[in-house]
Each structure stands twice: as structure tokens, then as C-alpha cells.
């Protein structure tokens, strides 16, 4: 699913450089990316998703050479292939739960919001225990519920890959595990590859693959 | 595009207070100068058309503007009156018709206008319901006055006392509504019309009372050779009816009774010129052309309007700048949202579409509100603005 | 056919004259527009009493509608018109009032000022005053008092002629095209009125101040114009006199030993008998304020004059 080869990336303002000799995450894997702050975890996700383009090397995601795509093509690829779960959830307060889940469909003309999509969103919400909260505003939800909405939004486009950037960072331990269980469950049910950035080493044994950015490209099974 | 509009609408709805404030301030910016100009134009035209429809106006020497404002628009200015003799003198010239106008009192807040039956065909006022004036004690209501008071033919209406706390003052006179005029979209709509003599009675210059000849001893103080002196028990009528109208009378010479002004309608242009010539050197009277007086007023209004426009446009510009500033700050505060949109694959163009839709919707709402406000103000505000101008004139 | 220069010039001059005449006519038409439209609108002339109605009828074109709106049997001086009647009056092209406070209703009715002519105004310096006013009731008009001014101005025939003159002026102002016929009408009317005036002057001279009584205070102008010494009572011709009335008559006769008493209409037989017993002969002098049952103003006044001439011995009695 994910393959990086001799990838180098540096932000225009300088000060940081990501250098990955080799990284491979097979399809269907539940992988965790770890490393200290500033090691490039978010940058890695950005390169894999096409938000940023590497200056050197090859980045292949879901079989597509992302580094070779134009900005528009990367955008298009991103929305149809990848789902994002953010640490701060980044839900929109002015939309209710259902509309937050359907938000990606509002942002792209390629995605058509029709009744089947709405039905899928409701089903997803139901699977995540959000069925009776669909007309609520995110401000009325608990942290755990907000995280589940974020997960639902990531899954609504039926992506092949979920990139989660510390999705449980703001949750308490009990809610954290619940959220993780749900995420794992949904990814497994959909055969979706998961690459999750985390600081929490206690969670690592729940992942099938660990990507240690400090090791700069070395992977541990 | 529909999704952009939807997201914009949801955002604006969620932040309704901010949205409302921005929309209202934009409405003011967009609408106020235009509404002001439209209303001012309409008011000036309305003032001028009434004045132009009045060939000449005779009054006491003094402020011609006050005279015109009081006689044409029924705004009380405390104008010194002329007399009925002046109106008779106009008739006696054979050059014009004189129509007396007496203002000064009100009836339930509406100006009471004493005049002659010639006033109505002159102003092309038609009866919508009931009939015209026939006798003392009758009154005709303007369309707006009738609607506001909820009165029609067969109803009655009290004049308002001239001074509330003057115990020796004039008692209200009960008038009989005999007709309601069709709307004329001018000052006549808000007036209560009576015969000139009725106005005099209402002002206390005429009265009716029980017959002294047959009055009982409890009313008579002294009776001596055809002279009867009555006491305070003498019943004075506060209503003119068919049965007591005979008893109403005026003491002294009626030709000396007051008239606020006389509308003078020359029979032809030459007569008008001759008449004006007769009053050029008049010491105590003035014969004015209302159109000229109002035109002069309009010129002053126009000058003031120009100054006001500059102020309004300046304020409006400041409002527009504030609006832009608020929008820019708002977007900065939504930077996180924009980043999320980008990460989720939203193009810059789409993001611009969403943000732009918010602006378009707010501007659209502002335009709509300004338009509605403008229609309402030009419909109803003209009278309000006219009264404001006339009160301040 | 060749057109010569002279013919061309003539044509130009004629065209110019034609155009000028048309413009002149249209200007005249414009300035006279109001008058012409007034003429077209002079559909009705309303009068407050019969004499004015008669005078108007003698002068106005035949198709002029002259309306005397007072119902039969009502004294026009005390008529109280309804609102509808007043509204009808307001539609008149010309309203002829008598003057001297005649027709009390004109004081409270709303009438179009421009269309009112007070016919007796300006015919004399001052109107005559009644010494006393007494409130009483007769007929369906209800209780009333005679006004302080005497108002039967037309009984002074020269004053009547003056009133007719004012009517003529008002008619001509509104119907300038009928000026000649109206003026001719006035001329013949004036002749008739002044003939009567002359006859009454002779009567006045013949009576030479002999006292007369009058049943009502309505003969002031007659008395003043023709030198008659008249004292007035308040007696109704169609009512029997009671004791108080006779006492009043007797008291009056002691001060004013009249041989004749003027009545507006023939008194009852009993009244006549009582008066004759007292040596007072009733003479009918109809003030002609109302439409006569027979004849017209002139014939009524001629009959009045004949009766006075008979009483004065000027002419043989009819």
C-alpha cells in the first residue's frame, strides 16, 4: 500500500529535512509511526497523502506514484483514496454530526453526494454508535463521540488508506482504547490499511508494523 | 456550487449574530444614500406639486414659509391670521376666488381645517363614503384620518381643547362625521375638514345656548325690557344639531373673524398678475406664490442633502472597510478550517467559492433588506420626512 | 394655369390673416374658457325667495333653470333645509340671497362663496332694524324670532329694482353671450317695478302720514319708502284672535289710531268683524315672499297697490 524509496523532503523555510531510505507498508496492515517530536511524523503523512511533494525519491501510495502527480491530481487522489483522522478532530461546529461525516463530499466535485452516500454515512454512524447523535452539533458531544465522528468522516469515502495523526492524543485512557478498538474494527471490516502516528508506546503492541522515524527508514515488524 | 452555497449558508446561520450585524450594516451602507436621495426627491416633488397646485396664498405679512407650511400642509406655525374681510375683498375684486383656510385646532391629534365648500373641487378631493359638508357641525375626514380613527359617516368626533388646563378655555365641540374623502396622498388625507364657521365655534368665537326668551328663573339673573341677563346655569351647547343650529351665533362683525390664510385662485393669468400687483406694496398683507416659496425651501433641502450625502458616503465607506476587515479577520480565525479543507483535498478554488458564497449571500441579503427598506420608506417615509421638513421649516 | 405674383401675395396675406385670427380666437377662447364653461355649467340658479325667482325669470334666457327650493306652505324666511337640500344648493351655478339676514339658514349652511350673490347688498347704506324681536311659533317652521334686521327689501320697489340689477350683473358675468337679452329683460322689469313704485308714492302722499297697523313686522321697507306710518303687531290671518290680542290691538289703537291694518293674507271673518267694529279696515298686502297661488309677483303687487289706492282714495276700489 505504501512505499517510500530514497525520499528526501525539506520545507522551503528550511530547518528540517526528512530522509527515508526505504519504507514499505503492505495493504491491510495496521501500522504505527513513532518518533520524538520534530522527527517528521506529520511530514511523512503529508508525503504519503500527497499534501507535500518530495524533492527526491519515490512515494507510492495505493499503487500510485504520488510524487509524480500534479497538485490537482494529488488532491483528487487524496480524496478518493485516503481518509484522515486528526488529533484535534477538526470537526466543523456549524455542521451537525451527519453533515460533518459527509463533509468530504461537499468539498469535491468528483464526489457525488446522493442518497446512497447518505445511507452509507448513516450506516457508518450507526456502526460507530452515533445513530442518535446525527442532528447534534459537535460542541454537544463528548471527546469520544467527537473522535468517532472524525473516524466516520475518514471512512465515509471508502478509502483504501487511513492516515491518523495521533487520533487518541486528546482522549482519556478508557475512551482512547474504545476509539482505537473502533478504528481497528472499522479498518479491518473494510480491509483498509491504517497508518497511525502515535506518541503512546503502550499502544504499539496492538499494531502489526511499527515505523520508527528516528531510525530513518528502518522498520520493525 | 450548490455545496459551496450550502456550507456558506450553514456557517452564516451558525454565526447568526455576527451575520445579522454585518448584513444590517451593509444594508445601511448600500441603502441609506439611495433611500435618502429617493425619499428626498419624492418629498420635494410632493411638496412642490402641492404648492404648484395652489396659485396664490394671501396671508398676514411675515414669514412666507410659515404661511405656506401652515395653510398648505396644516403644520401649526402660529401664523398671525388675516380676516374674513380679506377673503371677501378678494371676491369683490372679481379677479379671483378666495378660499379661506383656518387652522389651529386639532381633533384627536389630526389638524382641524376650517374652510369653504369650494376647497374640495379646488383640491380635486372626492367623497369616498357619505356626503360633503352641508351645515355647521358637519365634518369630513381625510382618508388616513378616517382609517386611523376608525370613523365613518354617522360617527362623531370631539375637537381637542385648545389648552388642557385652562378652566376658562374652550370646551371640545362634538362634530358629526358626514363623509370620508378618497385618498389624495397628501396632507388632506390626514385632516378633519369643517365649515369655517364650525371652526370658529370650536375656537369659542361662536356659541349656541338655550333660548333666553323662554329660559326659566333659575337661569335668568335679570330680565328688563327685552334684555335678559343669564347666569352660569345657562346651557351652552357643545354640539351643533339640526334642532339647535338656529341658536348658534357669532357676536360682533363676522368679517373681522380670523382666517389663517386664503387660497386665491385667479380667474385667469391676467387676473393673477393684477392681483399680485395690488399687494406688492401692501403693508399688512402678503400675496405669495407657494411654488416659489417651496422651491426656495427645496433648494435649501438640496444643499443640506448634498452635505448629508457626503457624510453618509463617508460613513458608508467606513462601514465597507469594517466589513472587509471583519471578513479578513474571520478567515484568519478559520485558518485551521482552511487547512483541514486542504488536507481533505479541497482545492483553493473550492475554498474560495465557499468563502465567496458567504460574502455573496451577505451582500445579497443586504441588498434585499435595503430594497425592502427603500420601498417601505418611499411608500410611508415620504409623509414622515415631509412632516419633519415642515416642522423644522 | 400660371399663378401671378399678385395672386401669390394675396394668398400669403390671407393665410397670415387666417392664422392670426385663429390664434386670436383660440387665445380668446382660452381666456374666456372659464366663462364659456361657466355658461355651459349655468344650469341652475337658486333663489331664497319668490321675488328673486321672479326677477331672475324675467331676465334669464328661457332655458335657464331657476329654482326656488322652498316647499309650498313654508315661509321662505324661516325655512330650514335638510342636508340633502343644502347639497343640492351647492350644485347651483348661482345662488341668489336676499340680504338683510333673510333666510336664517344661510348662516349655518355651507354654500359655495363664489357662487353667492347677496342681491340687496349695496342697494342702501344700512338695512332697517326691527325695534323688538319676539319669539313665537306659526306654521310648520317651528318657534323662531324675527331677526333684528328687517328683510322684506323688495317691498321698496326701487330697492327691488336695485336687486334686479345685481341679478342682471350676476347673470351676464356667467352668460356674457346673453348680455343683450338679459339687459333687455331688466329694462322691462325695471319699468314695471318703477311704475309700481310711482303708484305707491302717490298712495303715500295721499295718506300723508295717517297711521296704519300691520299684522306682522314685515312692512318696514314699504313704510319707509312710501312714507307710511305703520305700527306692527303679531297676528296670524288664519288664527282667531284671543283676548290678549284684542287688548294689544286696543292699546295700539289708543297710541296709533289707525283706520287700516295691513294683512299678509285675508284674516278670518271674526277677526275682520272685530277690526271693523273698532273702525279698522283690513287691507291685504301680500308681501309676495312665497310663490302666489295665482298670478305672479307683479300681479300680486299690482293688486296690493290697487287696494292701497282704494284705501287712500287715490283710485276707485276694485
Write up this protein:
The complex is a heterotrimer of chains A (221), B (393) and C (318). Helices cover 33% and strands 24% of the residues of chain A. Chain A has helices at 41-49, 71-81, 97-107, 115-127, 143-155, 173-189; strands spanning 2-10, 17-25, 30-34, 56-61, 64-65, 82-86, 161-165, 193-197, 209-212, 219-220. Chain A has one domain: Rossmann fold, CATH 3.40.50.300. Residues 217-221 of chain A have low confidence and may be disordered. The two termini of chain A are 16 Å apart. A six-stranded mixed sheet of chain A has the order 6-7-8-3-9-10, with helices on both faces. A four-stranded antiparallel sheet of chain A has the order 2-1-4-5, with helices on one face. Chain B is elongated. Chain C is of the alpha/beta class. Chain C folds into two domains: 38-186, Rossmann fold (3-Layer(aba) Sandwich), CATH 3.40.50.1980; 197-312, Nitrogenase molybdenum iron protein domain (Rossmann fold). Chain C has a four-stranded parallel sheet, covered by helices on one side. In chain C, helix 1 (5-31) packs across helix 2, helix 5 runs antiparallel to helix 6 and helix 6 runs parallel beside helix 10 (297-312). The longest helix of chain C has 29 residues, at 179-207. Residues 19-40 and 136-144 of chain C have low confidence and may be disordered. Chains in contact: A-B, B-C. Chain A binds chain B through residues 49, 51, 72, 75-76, 78-79, 84, 86, 88, 90, 92-95, 99, 103-109, 113, and chain B through 3, 6-7, 10-11, 13-15, 336-337, 340-347, 350.
Amino acid at each position: 500500500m505504501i512505499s517510500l524509496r530514497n525520499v528526501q523532503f525539506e520545507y522551503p523555510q528550511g530547518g528540517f529535512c526528512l530522509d527515508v531510505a526505504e519504507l514499505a507498508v503492505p495493504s491491510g496492515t495496521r501500522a504505527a509511526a513513532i518518533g520524538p517530536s520534530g522527527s517528521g511524523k506529520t511530514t511523512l503523512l503529508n508525503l504519503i497523502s500527497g499534501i507535500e511533494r518530495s524533492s527526491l525519491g519515490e512515494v507510492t501510495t495505493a499503487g500510485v506514484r504520488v510524487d509524480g502527480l500534479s497538485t490537482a491530481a494529488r488532491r483528487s487522489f487524496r480524496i478518493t483514496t485516503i481518509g484522515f483522522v486528526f488529533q484535534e478532530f477538526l470537526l466543523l461546529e456549524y455542521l451537525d454530526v451527519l453533515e460533518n461525516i459527509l463533509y468530504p463530499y461537499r468539498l469535491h466535485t468528483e464526489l457525488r453526494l446522493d442518497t446512497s452516500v447518505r445511507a452509507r454515512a448513516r450506516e457508518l454512524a450507526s456502526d460507530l454508535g452515533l445513530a442518535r447523535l446525527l442532528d447534534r452539533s459537535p460542541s454537544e458531544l463528548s471527546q469520544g463521540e467527537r473522535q468517532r465522528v472524525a473516524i466516520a468522516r475518514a471512512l465515509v469515502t471508502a478509502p483504501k488508506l487511513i492516515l491518523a495523526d495521533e487520533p487518541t492524543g486528546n482522549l482519556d485512557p478508557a475512551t482512547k482504547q474504545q476509539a482505537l478498538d473502533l478504528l481497528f474494527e472499522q479498518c479491518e471490516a473494510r480491509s483498509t490499511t491504517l497508518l497511525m502516528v502515535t506518541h503512546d508506546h503502550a499502544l504499539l503492541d496492538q499494531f502489526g508494523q511499527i515505523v520508527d522515524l528516528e531510525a530513518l527508514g528502518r522498520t520493525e515488524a | 456550487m450548490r455545496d459551496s452555497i450550502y456550507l456558506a449558508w450553514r456557517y452564516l446561520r451558525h454565526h447568526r449574530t455576527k451575520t445579522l450585524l454585518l448584513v444590517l450594516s451593509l444594508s445601511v451602507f448600500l441603502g441609506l444614500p439611495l433611500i435618502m436621495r429617493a425619499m428626498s426627491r419624492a418629498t420635494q416633488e410632493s411638496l412642490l406639486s402641492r404648492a404648484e397646485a395652489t396659485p396664490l396664498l394671501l396671508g398676514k405679512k411675515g414669514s412666507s414659509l410659515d404661511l405656506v407650511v401652515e395653510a398648505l400642509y396644516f403644520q401649526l406655525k402660529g401664523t398671525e391670521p388675516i380676516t374674513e374681510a380679506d377673503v371677501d375683498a378678494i371676491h369683490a375684486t372679481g379677479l379671483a376666488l378666495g378660499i379661506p383656510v383656518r387652522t389651529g385646532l386639532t381633533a384627536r391629534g389630526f389638524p382641524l381645517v376650517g374652510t369653504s365648500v369650494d376647497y374640495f373641487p379646488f383640491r380635486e378631493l372626492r367623497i369616498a363614503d357619505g356626503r360633503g359638508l352641508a351645515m355647521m357641525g358637519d365634518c369630513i375626514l381625510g382618508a388616513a384620518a378616517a382609517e386611523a380613527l376608525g370613523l365613518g359617516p354617522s360617527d362623531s368626533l370631539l375637537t381637542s381643547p385648545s389648552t388642557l388646563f385652562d378652566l376658562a378655555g374652550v370646551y371640545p365641540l362634538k362634530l358629526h362625521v358626514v363623509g370620508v374623502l378618497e385618498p389624495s396622498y397628501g396632507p388632506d388625507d390626514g385632516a378633519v375638514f369643517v365649515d369655517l364657521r364650525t371652526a370658529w365655534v370650536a375656537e369659542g368665537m361662536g356659541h349656541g345656548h338655550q333660548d333666553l326668551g323662554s329660559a326659566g328663573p333659575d337661569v335668568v339673573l335679570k330680565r328688563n325690557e327685552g334684555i335678559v341677563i343669564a347666569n352660569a346655569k345657562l346651557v351652552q351647547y357643545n354640539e351643533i344639531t339640526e334642532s339647535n343650529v338656529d341658536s348658534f351665533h357669532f357676536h360682533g362683525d363676522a368679517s373681522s373673524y380670523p382666517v389663517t390664510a386664503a387660497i386665491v385662485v385667479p380667474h385667469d393669468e391676467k387676473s393673477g398678475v393684477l392681483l399680485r400687483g395690488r399687494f406688492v406694496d401692501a403693508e399688512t398683507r402678503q400675496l405669495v406664490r407657494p411654488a416659489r416659496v417651496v422651491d426656495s425651501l427645496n433648494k435649501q433641502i438640496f444643499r443640506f442633502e448634498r452635505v448629508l450625502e457626503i457624510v453618509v458616503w463617508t460613513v458608508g465607506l467606513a462601514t465597507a472597510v469594517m466589513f472587509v476587515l471583519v471578513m479578513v479577520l474571520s478567515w484568519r480565525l478559520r485558518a485551521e478550517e482552511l487547512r483541514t479543507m486542504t488536507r481533505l483535498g479541497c482545492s483553493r478554488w473550492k475554498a474560495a467559492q465557499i468563502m465567496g458564497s458567504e460574502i455573496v449571500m451577505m451582500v445579497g441579503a443586504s441588498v434585499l433588506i435595503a430594497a425592502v427598506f427603500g420601498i417601505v420608506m418611499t411608500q410611508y417615509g415620504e409623509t414622515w420626512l415631509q412632516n419633519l421638513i415642515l416642522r423644522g421649516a | 394655369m400660371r399663378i401671378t405674383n399678385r395672386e401669390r401675395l394675396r394668398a400669403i396675406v390671407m393665410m397670415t390673416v387666417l392664422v392670426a385670427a385663429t390664434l386670436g380666437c383660440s387665445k380668446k377662447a382660452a381666456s374666456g374658457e372659464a366663462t364659456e364653461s361657466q355658461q355651459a355649467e349655468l344650469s341652475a340658479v337658486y333663489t331664497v325667495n319668490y321675488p328673486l325667482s321672479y326677477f331672475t325669470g324675467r331676465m334669464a334666457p328661457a332655458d335657464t333653470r331657476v329654482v326656488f327650493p322652498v316647499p309650498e306652505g313654508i315661509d321662505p324666511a324661516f325655512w330650514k333645509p335638510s342636508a340633502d337640500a343644502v347639497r343640492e344648493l351647492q350644485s347651483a351655478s348661482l345662488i341668489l340671497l336676499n340680504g338683510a339676514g333673510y333666510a336664517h339658514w344661510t348662516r349655518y349652511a355651507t354654500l359655495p362663496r363664489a357662487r353667492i350673490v347677496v342681491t340687496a347688498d349695496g342697494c342702501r347704506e344700512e338695512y332697517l332694524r326691527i325695534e323688538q324681536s319676539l319669539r313665537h311659533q306659526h306654521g310648520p317652521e317651528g318657534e323662531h324670532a324675527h331677526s333684528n334686521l328687517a328683510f322684506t327689501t323688495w317691498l321698496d320697489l326701487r330697492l327691488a329694482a336695485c336687486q334686479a340689477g345685481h341679478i342682471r350683473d350676476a347673470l351676464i358675468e356667467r352668460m356674457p353671450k346673453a348680455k343683450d337679452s338679459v339687459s333687455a329683460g331688466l329694462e322691462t322689469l325695471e319699468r314695471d317695478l318703477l311704475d309700481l313704485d310711482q303708484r305707491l308714492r302717490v298712495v303715500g302722499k295721499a295718506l300723508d302720514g295717517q297711521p296704519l297697523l300691520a299684522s306682522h313686522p314685515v312692512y318696514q321697507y314699504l313704510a319707509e319708502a312710501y312714507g307710511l306710518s305703520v305700527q306692527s303687531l303679531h297676528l296670524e290671518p288664519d288664527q282667531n284672535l284671543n283676548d290678549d290680542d284684542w287688548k294689544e290691538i286696543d292699546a295700539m289703537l289708543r297710541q296709533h289710531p289707525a283706520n287700516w291694518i295691513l294683512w299678509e293674507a285675508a284674516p278670518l271673518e271674526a277677526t275682520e268683524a272685530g277690526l271693523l267694529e273698532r273702525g279698522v279696515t283690513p287691507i291685504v298686502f301680500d308681501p309676495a315672499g312665497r310663490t302666489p297661488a295665482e298670478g305672479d309677483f307683479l300681479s300680486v303687487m299690482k293688486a296690493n297697490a290697487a287696494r292701497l289706492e282704494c284705501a287712500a282714495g287715490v283710485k276707485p276700489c276694485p
